[in-house]
Design a protein that fits this description.
The chain is of the alpha+beta class and about 700 residues long. It has 3 domains: about 5-200, Phosphatase 2c, domain 1; about 320-420; about 430-685, TolB, C-terminal domain (Neuraminidase, 6 Propeller). Helices cover about 40% and strands about 25% of the residues. A hairpin with a 4-residue loop joins strand 30 and strand 31 (about 670-675). The protein is extended, with a radius of gyration of 41 Å. The model is unreliable at about 175-185, about 205 and about 225-245 (pLDDT under 50).
Length: about 700
């Protein structure tokens, strides 16, 4: 699969690892502290490295400094320090041990080093660079091991060394491949190791006489005539019984190419030396400056002579000659303009042909999408939509026609995307009422439907607004004698009385008398409650920080017999809303929905949604409701699922510019939204059409 990349596979593997590890720890009832773990997991593909790091392990990159063009010094960068600065505020969870993945390529001839926290404390960056960049990886690790073994302390060390050899010449790689062990090769390896050790220990600035001797020997071999060397050799050689003829080299042979390259490099070096001597010698530099200036003057004089000569030539022409010359110039200009116009026309025709072909290709794919939607081939439709999106990136927008064609294609793409995403777009929802008309300071935060009336609470004004659906009449309910701090999470009991979660108690709105009553609940964790729901004359309170749902029995004017309802250890830190239909559903703000039966968590997962649900705010799923409804305020939409988790559709409108809450009347097939200070009404088309 061309679209599947190594990093995607790696991230998927990490996700499964997190899930399996969390399940294992939960099943075996093992408790671990993530802060004491030091784990590094990674994968290498070509010259790309993908890894995740948990704990205090170090990831060090050794590379050549690109800014110092004239030096071959290496630098070392601690990747983990850079990552930890960004991740320091995040608390690691046992459920998600591996949360961040670092991707990147190792520079050519670069090194990547994984170590535990202790090793960089005993070896400096300079020591690591000197050892790793000079010795082959296996020898470098052995040298580090020998160095650390001399420490007078029992400290564990771990190290993984990776070198990028992609792009290196075969000769450079062969130097690192161990040869078969022989007496001769062993001595040669010892000599090589001795030379490299001497290079490490030699002070900077000291003359290397061994290297100087080698250079002088090579120069002498080139200077001494071959005849002299052959004469001396003949004295010590014996004539063999066979004579081997050397084949003449081809002009394209490797030896010939190497020889030419050596000659070119030698010529280039001589040229650089010549330039350097010229620049450093003041007299020579001055001489060249004078020569250059003289050449500039001569060039200017030459140009003037040409101009004056042309003018003189033109003046001396006869009338017939002038006419012929002007005709020639005009013809030349016309020819140039004509050729330019023809080339421009050809290019425009070619661009037009490409544009027409591109439009035909996109229209063909859009027709295939229509066919796929007709036969329910969603997988193929998604692939075609992705291809059209990529083609639109290259779509030209130079002319008004091209822009018009682009808008037409893009609009159809949006419609097709909404079809595959099961979008029901509501262009003009009906506004039933605006509470700002009753009070200029109105700021309702939630709504609830109770017997042909919608109640909207305004905790700032300490008012509950009542909207009669029969005539859209708005009234205000308040009680100045009652202390009301909050009016959150409205919920109905079996008598259609409404209960609100306040700061220190529960506020009840009597449906018949429309009076407010404060009901005190004695519970140590009352301040942790974020949502309440009634079911079977019992009050259920969601307390995410305590990982619990607290259940109370309802008597006349109080709630008693508090019971912790959840039996499993479940992470509820991101819980934001809940509802009950016999089962209890808890919605997290990241879009995850948990389902509980008799205090135990069930395996439940919502179907895929496009675009993905990453921000959720409220859930409705009562006994009377056949579906599960989830409000996404950021996405300006309402998502509908059946109770098995299958995605049904989503309602979207441009009028949803400040969504706050919603409620559903499945009997009347209507959905009500609180948008800013208004109550909006739309048809629940997934339940069948009905007139508003």
């Amino acid at each position: 699969i061309s679209a599947l990349k190594v990093e995607h596979i790696f991230e998927l593997a990490l996700t499964k690892t997190n899930k399996k590890l969390a399940e294992f720890l939960q099943n075996e009832k093992i408790k671990i502290t993530p802060q004491i773990l030091n784990i590094t997991i990674g994968v290498i593909y070509n010259n790309f490295l993908h890894f995740t790091n948990l704990g205090k392990n170090k990831a060090l990159l050794i590379y050549k400094n690109k800014t110092d063009a004239g030096s071959a010094k290496h630098k070392i960068a601690d990747i983990t320090n850079q990552i930890n600065l960004n991740e320091s505020r995040k608390q690691t969870s046992v459920i998600k041990l591996f949360t961040n993945v670092i991707n990147g390529s190792i520079p050519p001839n670069g090194y990547f080093l994984f170590t535990n926290e202790a090793m960089p404390e005993y070896l400096s960056n300079k020591q690591l660079i000197d050892i790793i960049t000079v010795l082959p990886p296996a020898s470098a690790v052995e040298q580090i091991k020998n160095t650390l073994s001399k420490i007078n302390a029992y400290v564990p060390f771990s190290i993984i060394l990776i070198k990028n050899t992609l792009g290196l010449k075969n000769l450079e790689i062969k130097k690192q491949i161990p040869e078969q062990l022989t007496t001769q090769s062993s001595v040669k390896n010892l000599n090589t190791m001795e030379e490299k050790t001497e290079n490490l220990l030699i002070p900077s600035g000291l003359i290397d006489f061994n290297r100087l001797r080698t250079v002088l020997t090579k120069i002498s071999e080139k200077i001494i005539p071959k005849s002299l060397k052959s004469t001396n050799i003949k004295k010590s050689l014996f004539l063999k019984d066979k004579i081997f003829l050397k084949k003449k080299l081809n002009w394209l042979s490797i030896q010939k190419i190497i020889s030419l390259a050596q000659g070119f490099i030698l010529y280039l070096m001589n040229f650089i030396i010549f330039i350097f001597k010229t620049i450093t010698n003041k007299e020579t530099l001055k001489k060249y400056q004078v020569n250059i200036w003289q050449k500039i003057i001569q060039t200017v004089i030459f140009i003037k002579q040409i101009i004056y000569g042309t003018i003189f030539w033109f003046k001396n022409l006869s009338k017939k000659g002038i006419i012929l010359f002007l005709v020639f110039v005009v013809c030349l200009i016309l020819l140039t303009v004509n050729l330019t116009w023809i080339n421009l026309e050809k290019r425009q025709n070619a661009e037009k042909t490409i544009f027409i072909d591109l439009v035909k290709l996109i229209e063909q794919k859009q027709n295939q999408i229509d066919a796929g939607l007709l036969y329910g081939n969603e997988k193929n439709v998604k692939i075609l939509l992705k291809e059209i999106t990529e083609l639109l990136v290259t779509f030209p927008l130079n002319t008004a026609e091209q822009k018009e064609q682009y808008d037409k294609i893009n609009q159809k793409k949006i419609v097709q995307l909404e079809k595959i995403s099961k979008v029901i777009r509501v262009d003009s929802p009906t506004e039933l009422a605006n509470f700002i008309n009753l009070s200029s300071y109105a700021n309702p935060i939630n709504i609830i439907l109770s017997k042909e009336k919608i109640y909207a609470s305004d905790q700032e004004q300490k008012i509950i607004y009542s909207l009669e659906l029969a005539n859209n009449l708005i009234t205000a309910i308040t009680d100045i004698n009652k202390i009301i701090n909050k009016l959150n999470s409205p919920s109905l009991d079996k008598d259609n009385n409404i209960y609100y979660l306040s700061s220190n108690n529960i506020v009840r709105l009597d449906k018949k008398t429309e009076t407010l009553t404060n009901i005190t609940i004695k519970h140590n964790n009352f301040q942790q409650f974020i949502d309440i729901k009634f079911f079977n004359n019992r009050l259920y309170c969601l307390a995410p920080k305590n990982k619990q749902i607290i259940r109370f029995n309802k008597s006349t004017n109080k709630f008693t017999d508090a019971v912790s309802w959840i039996n499993d250890d479940v992470d509820l830190t991101e819980a934001i809303s809940m509802d009950i239909d016999g089962n209890i559903y808890i919605l997290k703000n990241n879009g995850e929905l948990l389902k509980f039966i008799k205090g135990k968590k069930e395996n439940f997962e919502l179907g895929m949604v496009e675009p993905a649900l990453t921000n959720a705010n409220k859930i409705i799923s009562s006994v009377e409701q056949k579906y599960i409804y989830i409000l996404d305020i950021v996405g300006k939409r309402l998502l509908v699922f059946d109770k098995s988790g299958k995605f049904i559709n989503q309602y979207v409108s441009n009028k949803f510019n400040n969504l706050k809450d919603f409620t559903v009347d499945e009997t009347a097939k209507k959905i009500y939204f609180l948008n800013n200070t208004s109550v909006l009404l739309i048809n629940a088309k997934h339940l069948g059409s009905v007139a508003i």
